Amino acid sequence: PLFEIENQIWNEWTAEEQLQYLTLTKKYCDALKKHMHTDFQ
After folding, report:
1. What is the pTM of this model?
2. Contact between 21 and 13 (Cβ < 8 Å)
3. pLDDT of the residue at 15
4. Residue 8 CA: distances (Å) to CA of 24, 27, 35
């Protein structure tokens, strides 16, 4: 299943890469929420 592949990729990353991924994902989600709120009202 896909989640097993995702886990394998995650485990291949260093702790720094994992943190960078989480940081950028949060930044993306925050920006998406901001634009969804302002652009679709």
Report:
1. 0.75
2. yes
3. 99
4. 20, 24, 33
Name the residue with tokens 């943190």: 19
1-41 pLDDT per residue, tens: 999 999 999 999 999 999 999 999 999 999 999 999 887 76
Closest listed residue to residue 21, CA positions, set 10, 30, 32, 31: 10
The answer to whether residues 18 and 10 touch, using CB atoms and an 8 Å cutoff, is yes
CA dihedral 22, 23, 24, 26 (to 10 degrees): 80
Round to the nearest angstrom and report the end-to-end CA distance of the chain. Answer: 38
